[in-house]
Amino acid sequence: MSDILKKICEAKVIEVAEAKKRSPFEVMRRDAESRVLTRDFVGALRAKIAQGQAAVIAEVKKASPSKGVIRADFDPADIAQSYMVGDGKTSAACLSVLTDRQFFQGEPDYLKQARASTLLPVLRKDFMVDPYQIYESRAMGADCVLLIAACLDDAQMAEMEQIARSLDMAVLVEVHDGAELERALKLKTPLIGINNRDLRTFEVSIQTTLDLQKQVPADRLLVTESGIASPEDVKTLRDAGIHAFLVGEAFMRADEPGDALAKLFA
Ligand SMILES: O=P(O)(O)OC[C@@H](O)[C@@H](O)c1c[nH]c2ccccc12
């Protein structure tokens, strides 16, 4: 595990211990189980692809450890609506919302606001280290959770996936190398995220996706993540048969994030 990832996951363990004191496990579980109807995250991606379009998971992210504050004027509901509309032709399939406070200046409320202002399925972007957080994700309204293979062992991933499925949530499992990908493929989820960002160096290369793509069976839905910034990047990836994208920074730096999305994927 990279140093930054290790630091974040250690902080998460403490954060979760505190959260459990405020809302004990059974309370959180009941809260999660009382929520009705998730939005179909995988279906929304597949629908775009079936129409010959790129399936874009558009991220709502204020700041990151590598870039600091990315967007000072930050209104999650406005941003989410902008993504949902796009330019009227090209728009997001799904949203991703950072809920981590300490490293990404995120908030659980941002997810609630983004989801309430749109009809799009929402991924909770955070660092899962404990099954408690899967219930917590559903309780805050998430339709999909992220499992980062580098943070978890096989048994933890399988357990968290099982809980997510029992709550009708989708799972995006994120990998950065071939060994992590092999482990991710033991899960049932179709959504395999390949992170182009190396969390040790913060270097970003879409070549990571192109290299690992061969190892992803055709019945899985590969999502290329991070560092997608130009129409050339998009063309290279789509020509290679990759149609699902997770993009944050390139949109967050634009005045109108949905316009930036439409331009990047037109
Ligand atoms: O802002 P970018 O380079 O477009 O990247 C978006 C997304 O892939 C990135 O935020 C991300 C990918 N995996 C993560 C895990 C945790 C936090 C953030 C991430």
UniProtKB/TrEMBL annotation:
Gene Ontology molecular function: indole-3-glycerol-phosphate synthase activity; phosphoribosylanthranilate isomerase activity
Biological processes per GO annotation: L-tryptophan biosynthetic process
Pathway: Amino-acid biosynthesis; L-tryptophan biosynthesis; L-tryptophan from chorismate: step 4/5
Record-listed E.C. numbers: 4.1.1.48
Keyword Amino-acid biosynthesis included in the entry's annotation: yes
Annotated Indole-3-glycerol phosphate synthase domain residues: 5-263
CDD domains tied to this protein: IGPS (cd00331)
Superkingdom, natural source: Bacteria
Catalytic activity field: 1-(2-carboxyphenylamino)-1-deoxy-D-ribulose 5-phosphate + H(+) = (1S,2R)-1-C-(indol-3-yl)glycerol 3-phosphate + CO2 + H2O
Cross-referenced InterPro entries: Aldolase_TIM, Indole-3-glycerol_P_synth, Indole-3-glycerol_P_synth_dom, Indole-3-GlycerolPSynthase_CS, RibuloseP-bd_barrel
Keywords (A to Z) from UniProt: Amino-acid biosynthesis, Aromatic amino acid biosynthesis, Decarboxylase, Lyase, Tryptophan biosynthesis
HAMAP family in alphabetical order: IGPS_B
Entry's family note: Belongs to the TrpC family.
NCBIfam families according to UniProt: PRK00278.1-2, PRK00278.1-6, PRK00278.2-4
Name used for this protein in its record: Indole-3-glycerol phosphate synthase
Organism: Comamonas koreensis
Gene that specifies this protein: trpC
